[in-house]
Write a structure and sequence with these properties.
about 110 residues, alpha+beta, two-stranded antiparallel ribbon, 2 helices, about 25% helix
Amino acid sequence: MYHLTRQPPPADDPDARRRPNTEPIYTTTTFWKRTGAEYLTFWYVGRIAEDAVPKDKKLSSSELDYTTHLLTYKEALERVWGQQKAVLEYAWAVYIYTLRLEGEQISKG
């Protein structure tokens, strides 16, 4: 995706900042009083191909109670709050900006 980055371009590739990058768009730290754990979250923006097929993968013991969800932008907005909502709104803006730069059709999600 195309988004602003503070990472300097490699010396041998000064145009790197003009291409999509794979950096996280945001990083958050959350403390959960219930468990006493802290979670470091790296936020990324990406696309899943229309014909993508989910793969079964073996879960580690720490992932057994973890469930993933594939949501539309509107559905995701209904499930987040506070700072997460602002990050999601920024992620959507990055996605739309990337689509426009690439000349693709924009879905309202």
